[in-house]
Design a protein that fits this description.
The chain is an alpha/beta fold. It has a domain of 246 residues: NAD(P)-binding Rossmann-like Domain (Rossmann fold, 3-Layer(aba) Sandwich), CATH 3.40.50.720. It is built from 13 helices and 13 strands. The strands form 4 sheets. A 7-stranded parallel beta sheet has the order 3-2-1-4-5-6-11, sandwiched between helices. The radius of gyration is 19 Å and the shape is globular.
């Protein structure tokens, strides 16, 4: 993205204290944007957002999206130019432990944001981030396309599919009149990995937490494949989509885009671990298969639409993707008391931006 359209723009990010949200907040701050952040809480320790030490550089609101009146008030008062909706209960296992909270956060939270936008009269560009798990998983090898069926067996996937139905309903019911000022697109990304993720029951964070203590990590599904990509790849897609929406709002209004690796470049959990070990010899694991909860074994995204309409594709090879992640965690754990996380993450963003 050569031209910086975000400088001095007011950008509202829901879930800004989360893994993806904190990286997006930092990136947009580096671009000179004015950030309004909405998050219910900081739910990991450590927290990438806290370690970045950027809270004083943004307008930070601790608010639950289930509080519709507060959401309306913040949007009416801040009048954002762009909105990136990332707030969610994003963990499959947690969705089994807390299904009501998962449905409430992922479905009702999204509906409340859409409802708060109904009275907006200022031109506003909205990127709603859902998930690759929104698709009804048929273990298809060809890669899921944007017009494939949505659905889900586990509470997380089903709640995200439900949110997608609500999004399309709101677009068609309330945001399609000729004087509409709110333009909405949907982004579905594959599994993102990167430094600063400490969510539970996620492969990379679990591994580095254990390895930092010289412990083995138990792997439950070594042969499961995922469209692994670095968090910056997906965020770059969201930013490009926002730029395209700015130029031709009606061309992208209501459109859905997948953001996944090139040529369905899925890799198994075991292959990811072996690649990490090539950069981080201390990596070690045990295979302990566990089928207590359903999690799709095969997920592939077809991102040809993003390539064609946005000229977006992943810039990092699988090896570089893993190298970025490993270098971040190695720097953090090797020099925990000295590391400047904001500098570390900012440097990775700048390195990424230089890749052609």
């Amino acid at each position: 993205m050569k031209k910086n359209i975000f400088k001095e723009k007011k950008i509202l990010i829901t879930g800004h204290t989360g893994f993806k949200g904190s990286w997006l907040t930092l990136w947009l701050l580096l671009k000179g944007a004015k950030i309004i952040g909405l998050s219910k809480n900081i739910n990991t320790r450590p927290s990438h957002f806290q370690l970045l030490n950027i809270k004083k550089k943004i307008k930070h609101y601790q608010v639950d999206l289930k509080n519709l009146s507060k959401i309306k008030k913040i949007i009416n008062n801040s009048r954002p130019d762009y909105i990136f909706h990332l707030a969610a209960q994003a963990l499959v296992k947690n969705s089994y432990d807390n299904p009501i909270e998962t449905w409430s956060s992922n479905s009702i939270g999204t509906i409340h944001l859409l409802e708060a936008l109904r009275k907006v009269k200022k031109k506003t560009f909205v990127i709603l981030i859902t998930s690759d798990k929104s698709y009804k998983n048929l273990e298809l090898d060809r890669g899921y396309k944007e017009d494939d069926l949505i659905g889900g067996k586990d509470p997380y996937s089903a709640s995200k599919a439900s949110a997608e139905l609500a999004i399309q309903s709101y677009i068609n019911s309330f945001f399609s009149h000729k004087n509409n000022k709110v333009f909405i697109s949907v982004a579905r990304a594959g599994n993102v990995i990167g430094g600063g993720d400490w969510s539970e029951n996620r492969l990379v964070p679990d591994c580095f937490k254990k390895w930092s203590k010289n412990r083995f990590v138990d792997i439950r599904n070594p042969n499961s494949t995922r469209p692994w990509q670095h968090v910056l790849e997906a965020l770059n897609g969201y930013l490009i989509l926002a730029k395209k929406m700015t130029i031709r709002p009606r061309n992208f209004h209501g459109e859905v885009f997948n953001f996944g690796p090139k040529n369905f470049d899925n890799n198994s959990v075991l292959k990811v671990l072996k690649k990490i070990k090539s950069f981080y010899p201390a990596a070690k694991w045990n295979i302990r298969k566990n089928k207590k909860f359903h999690e799709s074994n095969l997920l592939k995204l077809n991102s040809k639409k993003a390539k064609k309409k946005l000229n977006w594709e992943c810039k990092l090879s699988f090896s570089d993707n893993i190298r970025y992640v490993t270098e971040w965690y190695k720097s953090f754990y090797d020099r925990k008391q000295k590391i400047n996380v904001c500098k570390l993450s900012s440097e990775q963003i700048r390195q990424y931006e230089k890749i052609k």
